[in-house]
């Protein structure tokens, strides 16, 4: 029987088949799903901000795209994943409010920072559903790596 593992905001979790790892309410936040298809190990991070270096006294690595992705990769390798097999899928990074300052671009900046860190770590980004102006709830199926994206009033997307 599959267990549903919930990932909170500024949080990350790793699980194996047949479990599902999910996070709710991605607005400007980005959900980063990593998957090793050989051992059917999945990981999901719910990052809120692009860059940990701009904040002092930060102990929550999962809160930021740069440190959150590194932490997720570290956890997955510790559970037997091979970095060279990891595949990434991302969702979120929406522009939830019409504001003209930099805060209005936080979703876009989160997506940019996520892509930069994945590239730096040599992890292939194979699918994404980012931007626009609506929230998303995502589920990573650890059995097959399917990444479900659910949004109010929209059909379910499977990446």
Automatic annotation (TrEMBL):
CDD domains: CheD. Keywords: Chemotaxis, Hydrolase. One of its GO terms (molecular function) is protein-glutamine glutaminase activity. One of its GO terms (biological process) is chemotaxis. It catalyses: L-glutaminyl-[protein] + H2O = L-glutamyl-[protein] + NH4(+). Pfam families: CheD (PF03975). Signal peptide: none annotated. InterPro entries: CheD-like_sf, Chemorcpt_Glu_NH3ase_CheD, Cytotoxic_necrot_fac-like_cat. It comes from the Bacteria. Its EC number is 3.5.1.44. HAMAP family: CheD. Belongs to the CheD family. Probably deamidates glutamine residues to glutamate on methyl-accepting chemotaxis receptors (MCPs), playing an important role in chemotaxis. This is Probable chemoreceptor glutamine deamidase CheD. It comes from Acetitomaculum ruminis DSM 5522. The lineage of its organism: Bacteria, Bacillati, Bacillota, Clostridia, Lachnospirales. The gene is cheD.
């Amino acid at each position: 029987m599959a267990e549903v593992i919930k990932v909170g905001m500024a949080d990350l979790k790793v699980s194996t088949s047949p479990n599902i790892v999910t996070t709710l309410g991605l607005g400007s936040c980005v959900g980063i799903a990593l998957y090793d298809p050989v051992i059917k190990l999945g990981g999901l991070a719910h990052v809120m901000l692009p860059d940990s270096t701009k904040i002092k006294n930060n102990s929550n690595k999962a809160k930021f795209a740069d440190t959150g992705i590194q932490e997720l990769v570290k956890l997955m390798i510790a559970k037997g994943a091979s970095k060279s097999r990891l595949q990434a899928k991302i969702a979120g990074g929406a522009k939830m409010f019409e504001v003209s300052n930099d805060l209005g671009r936080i979703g876009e900046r989160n997506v940019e920072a996520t892509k930069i860190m994945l590239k730096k770590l040599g992890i292939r980004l194979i699918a994404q559903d980012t931007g626009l102006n609506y929230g998303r709830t995502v589920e990573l199926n650890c059995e097959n790596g399917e990444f479900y994206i659910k949004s109010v009033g929209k059909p379910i997307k499977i990446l």
